[in-house]
């Protein structure tokens, strides 16, 4: 299910990332934080009052020159307005109201997007006078915050979730596979879209009839219906979006949230860079099915080991996604492109697969017999029961004597045992433990 997107905007140094970390820290975690997904987080998921959302910190740009600052905050705010469902605008009580704050406020005000204004660095709850001048921004009642002391964050979240849109109406039927092409600029996303749609027996169809069909492209092949999510965004050649990683990430996030299957496009000619990992990490965290699509394979000088070496390199770089299949293609020559949609179809199926409870419990009982759970200070984890509670991605709940005794490595072991029986190819799986 697509989560609404919240974007944090504001001048550098007002405390955006501090607040971001507070919000992420307060999430109800069912999602794992696995080794390998380490990075400076700018994107995360959270839940407040039972409402899930994803959140991006658009800030973090170091700028000292005032002209450059205004340009950057303007760009950031414009992007947030375009891509986010709710905007969290942070200002700084210690610095007071600045021209850059006013620039941002004007842009936000015109957008008609829901906005929550937080005034940070109000460290002393007894003195609240600094907040009054921020009323002049015309964005309603500011929420007093202290990111470092954790003051006001709950109030801020209350205001924020009030403004989240209702669950978006599902635009496409269950049988339609929604595909997002993601990847850094110039890997060949838009060429791949064209090549896919130009493939033999692909019929571009008109199944939606809503506002979204202006940006999505539905099509059909071999009796299966697909939708390419945000085709317009992929084709848009906006300098703004490509200027920095954060901006292109935000665009990808929207698409990922709405998709079933993420095609993580990699430039075979250039190899893998850090940014590819970040983008793949979003698909993983969002729980989408994923496929690595190595494009421009025509331009790679090859011998009989090249593909094997590239595959190893992908596995090394993306340790957190061993489940994702890899397809080598060329948008230019259409080489192997016909292999892509069958893989998409397969991972989509695996992504929504349910394993019967009795079968799961047999697998876990066998796994425990072969390799008993570790003990901690003389106490041993006991698993009473396992059941699958969700699909897309497959999510399992383990009922145990004490969730504290469950270790990541044992969970990984159980995952591997389940995957031996049911590969769940292309899909992350999730575990939660509950005390029985
Ligand atoms: P960003 O550039 O907007 O993401 O800001 P950061 O979160 O990196 O914070 C900038 C600086 O302000 C850091 O030195 C923080 O420790 C500090 N800071 C953040 N929140 C508060 C706060 O509530 N009170 C005070 N006094 N300092 C804060
Ligand atoms: P995007 O920014 O990810 O949408 O990338 P584009 O589709 O605009 O492609 C960027 C550049 O890579 C263009 O010059 C394309 O012609 C080129 N390109 C795309 N796919 C291929 C491919 O399969 N092989 C080769 N050799 N070049 C490609």
Short account of what is shown:
InterPro entries: G_ENGA, GTP-bd, GTPase_Der, KH_dom-like, KH_dom-like_a/b, P-loop_NTPase, Small_GTP-bd. Keywords: GTP-binding, Nucleotide-binding, Repeat, Ribosome biogenesis. By secondary structure, the protein is α/β, with parallel strands linked by helices.
Number of separate strands: 18
CATH architecture of the largest domain: 3-Layer(aba) Sandwich
How far from one another are the termini? 28 Å
Work out the radius of gyration: 23 Å
Helix fraction, binned, reads: 25-40%
CATH class of the largest domain: Alpha Beta
Low-pLDDT windows of residues: 26-39, 209-213
CATH fold group of the largest domain: Rossmann fold
Which small-molecule ligands are present, each listed once? Answer: guanosine-5'-diphosphate
In the sheet with the most strands, the strands line up as 8-9-10-7-11-12-13
Net shape: globular
Describe the biggest sheet? 7 strands, mixed
| Total count of domains | 3
What does this structure look like?
GTP 1 binds at residues 10-17, 57-61, 120-123. Keywords: GTP-binding, Nucleotide-binding, Repeat, Ribosome biogenesis. GTPase that plays an essential role in the late steps of ribosome biogenesis. It comes from Paenibacillus antri. Residues 4-168, 177-352 form the EngA-type G domain. The chain is α/β, with parallel strands linked by helices and 436 residues long. The chain has three domains: 5-163, P-loop containing nucleotide triphosphate hydrolases (Rossmann fold); 177-352, 3-Layer(aba) Sandwich (Rossmann fold), CATH 3.40.50; 357-435, K homology (KH) domain (GMP Synthetase, Chain A, domain 3, 2-Layer Sandwich). The chain has helices at residues 16-25, 66-83, 99-111, 153-162, 189-197, 231-235, 239-243, 245-258, 274-285, 306-317, 340-351, 357-370, 408-421, and strands spanning 5-9, 43-48, 51-57, 86-92, 115-120, 143-144, 177-182, 203-204, 217-221, 224-228, 261-267, 289-295, 326-328, 375-376, 379-380, 383-390, 395-400, 430-435. The chain has a seven-stranded mixed β-sheet with strand order 8-9-10-7-11-12-13, with helices on both faces. A six-stranded mixed β-sheet has the order 2-3-1-4-5-6, with helices on both faces. Strand 9 and strand 10 (224-228) form a beta hairpin. Helix 2 packs parallel to helix 8 (245-258), helix 8 runs parallel beside helix 9 (274-285) and helix 12 packs across helix 13. The longest helix has 18 residues, at 66-83. The chain is globular. The two termini are 28 Å apart. Residues 26-39 and 209-213 have low confidence and may be disordered. It binds guanosine-5'-diphosphate (2 copies).
